[in-house]
Amino acid sequence: MYFRNIEADHKNPNPFNEEELDTYGDLSRKEWKQIYAEIDPTFSRNSNEFFRKYKRQRFNTGRSDKRRRKKWQNSLTEDAVSRNDWKYPANSWDLTGECPDNAAGETYESWNYAFGDVTIVNRTVLVDSDVNTGVVKVAEGGKLIFKDLGEGAESITFRALALKAEGGGEIWAGSRNCRYQGRLDITLYGDEDAMEQDMGVKYLHADEGGVIELHGKEKHHWTHLENHLFANSVAVEQLEWLQDRTNDGQGAWPDIDNRAGFRMVFHILSKEGDLKDTFSVPDGETDGLSDFLNQFDDEEIILFFTDFKYTLTDNFVSTLAEKGFPQAYFDTLFLSEHSKYPPEEKMMHPMTDTIGPVSLGGEKSGFDFQFEYAASWSLNGDNDALQVNSDAFETWLLDLESYTWARQIFNSLETHVTYSGSTSGQVQKITVSDDVSSWEVGDVIVVAATGKDPHHSERFTIQDCPNCLANEILLDRTANYTHWGRIDSETGIDQRAEVGLLSRNIRFFGELEDTGCQYARTREQLDSDSPNRGNNWCDYMNDMSGEDTDRHGAHMVGTKRFANFHVSHIEIFHAGQPRLARYPMHWHHAGYVGEMGGYQDPSSAISLSIHDCFSRFVTVHGTHEAIVQNNVGHLTHGHGYFLEDGFETYNHVIGNLGIGVMPGIILPTDRHFSICSDTNDMLEGYEQVPNVACDGLSVFWIAHPHNFFHDNAAVGGNAGYWVFTHTASDKYGYEALPIDPVSGRREWRNNKASAAQWGFVFQWHVQDEGVSEEFPQSQFSMLRAGPTYAAMNEEWDNGNFDPDSDDRAIADLRPNVWTSPSANWADQYFVGFKMHHIANKNTIAGAANHLEGWQVSDCFKGYELQATRNTIGSTRSIKDSTFVGFSKNTGHQRCQQLRDDTNNPKVSVDLVAPITCSDGGADSGLGPFFPKPNSFDNWSYQWYKPEGDVYRQAISNQDNKFPAIILESSLNPTFIENNRFFNFKSSSSSDNAIYAPREDDLWKRPQFMENYILKNNTYINVDRIFPATKSDGKENNFGVADIDGSPGYVLSALASTVSTDCNLVVINDELDSSNVKWCPFSTKIGQLLIETQENNEEGAGYEIYNSKSADLFSLEATQLNRANAEVTIEPFQTYSIQTVDGSPSSRVTLRVTNTGQGDWYRISWCAPTNSTLDLQAGRIFIGDDMSQYTLTRNENAVPVTLVASFNELNSASDGEIFVYDDHIER
User: Fold this and answer.
1) Which residues are in the G8 domain (predicted)?
2) Could you tell me the residue range of the domain that residue 1005 belongs to?
């Protein structure tokens, strides 16, 4: 089977017909490639483009399995229904589809209890009006049912201290087959002392044997913008300038030719309306103007305007004519008879003008831009026209000292320039990706930030819109910030804003006191011997949120052996408490809550809205198999979606949105670093907890990888996703991602992060042990080093698995193919991730990780390939991904907001000098710092122009380092292929598509050679692929092999030792072109490491020779100062090393690394005749029988034996011998 030839439709966004969409179904990428190969035997890069279009067409037309899977399937599987041996059967009303408040055979009685605590047993109580009560417990056949009064009816408010279902008790509000249509508020009240502690206070609790089922009206959970939503409905950044005589920067009385106010000013904008550059020419001159304008494309926008006065010349007109401005333009615009200008015999009035609208292009096509210009001056406050002719006035201007009133006029000059648009201030109707006709007038939505600051997420209220389509919404106001809403037409990256629904018809929340913050406590304060038990961290929490408010919210929890616990389509707010184990939605040591635990209907939280909370969104603690799906979280303290203890497995966390997490207090990793040491989470006598142990705040905190994470989106956080293990996980630290039932691989798919410090990080460990001499750091803090994944050296006995105990089901043991070193050998696939506007980096530790189809843009470091040690049989890869240095989504100029001097205009102070930000605020030093993303500490935002780009927002001057991929040392093959790199404009040696930093740590040095393999990568608008030198000017000794013969790459440090099939192209700082054809390697490469033991600054240097060169390398003594020097060498040759200019070090270690299986090297050490050598061999041998590049090093060096001849040396079976030859001379 194959498609018709679709290559001709490559510009069509919907190239597939109905038959094709129905016939082929949801093809995998592998299946697609098989089909596409028949369409295009050359297998061009259009394959990926058409695959995306095919999947998108199926999704948008409702055919996608992915879309259907996102909706809850009310019907259980046939197998689940037919089985009758479930330990926890599904609810009968879920099987029959009956409505809980109108079920056959049920006898209902209305609530009729006096105020106080209530226990409901063996009766069905119907709540059909408002209730105010105490603690309510439902048990032993009791049912509490909330009557559905229907859409449009008055709401019901159920106000209680706490609410619990236990021992056969049930609490229902609707069901998944009969959803609650009316309005219901379940609000819990009271402070900490209002009731006897049970599961804390203010709880909704599904305890052992209890049932809680809350199911609101089904509404679409969250979607994406399909078009841009602009700040103030203006499609360009609303930059402002105000030029006056007090800020012209020229002094009081400059020469008239240099005086601001006598010039023509130019602004150049990109086709999207982003400022690229400014320029000015003095009155009557055009020097440099032609060269300036010729830098820019015809599609770019040229603005020019006078700063008070400019005399037109023929040269000026002809220069502009070359850029498309005809003579008639000047004849019309500058005629004295023009209505905007006064008669020739009088000076001009102050004038205001609007130019445009001008249509924008590129990623903002369909929108426009306007230019607002205003110039004013006065004489003694009088703005009327002057009764003098222009010739006389110009004479006075040339001699301002003689004409006081002319001086007053000139000194009052103000020129005000603003960028705007024809739709400025108009409320927008937005278009989204999905059918949101279920959203109602008055519902509140949140639109996520799409820049670097998650605080730019904002809420709107839906207005009545009779003419709106099913995917259109009318907002109640203009946006304060721009939210990106299109997929980039050039690169294909998707930075579209998420749009989440916050309003639901069933609401669960805590009633807050007006006394302010009551308490805020750390986890460690619960310990009986804690020196901190009486501490209260309210002041800190108030600082983090910016307000003093009560945070004693409600909380919902399911504990072990509940009968059934499902909630969907409800709203939760003012929930969670700033202390341990009190969260808005929480499974607490519930064990296995799905099939492995005997549950016919797995426990779930689906399509919840969770916002304005005080501790997390959703917590999965000591629980497996839970379903957390399609939820929307906006604003909470601490980690958002939280897997707690590090052994939670088989949970399905799918399709969730989290926006905005603020620092919390409970765990060190929740906290902002400023409070890290002060909380003193330790026993007295040990070191203070370092700040690095905190600052782990994450939207998704994933304490164990053996869970299913797909289709989630994180906005904000110190990390969007942080995946790690706990130090106490000795029994399960070997585990990797679970095998996905759809792909059959260990795979996570389609997760997105933006506006975070770290996007996706899979690294490091949390310390479970308490404080001790061995572990002096605070318990539950983040260790930025420590244990690695454990090797799987034994099989576990699964025969006695008991889901009610703390045992864990091990479903996919990996083969034990090694004993040393420890490593995680399982191949793990991370597919379709999107990482945008990340202030630090993305990284995944491990030797067998594979990235496919990633999108990475506007990140400080796109992706860092961590250094790995030897892992037999493993490979890593980055394939089919797109990396964009700078996208068209430029962010906001916040410098205007940084000004705090009310007398100083919040605008640029020179018409040709846009205001820029620096550390501490604006250029003038005025203004407060702005909040750091995800906490509320100081962080400097910058507005600046990277080289060759437009003005844009950044968190630091990221023009200095913006690599797509950072390489650290790898002793295993790493494939980087079929990727695209866009817009890496370089102004320093570290701005590259791929960057290999040179560090002192042996395992982090760029010593890769044949282990990094590049293939079929595309570079567009990229100045430099690799760096040629260190920041200190020393050369990197670096090489990459290209196995398919397409352009390879070597650096100048390799030029004299590496053979190639063509003329070697040496890349260095003088040759930055990305268009050169680099030579593929035609020889094997190894690396000789020379290491000295002690400082050698006054000692000897070394020279290295081989048969091809009389002086191959010279290494100065300072290069061997207790460090390694790397020399690239070819195998199957003899090399000699000779000391020069001093005595050799007392101990020199030689190693050969990064070589191929079976390669040999003969190293001859030329020692001075008066030296004494203690020769030992740290034997290095190839230990890999899988045709990979792997080295294993013996730990104990052994003495080397002297033999008599080279023949004896060559014929030896081991490497622990040497020959001494006193006849070699150089």
Assistant:
1) 109-227
2) 746-771+826-892+965-1071
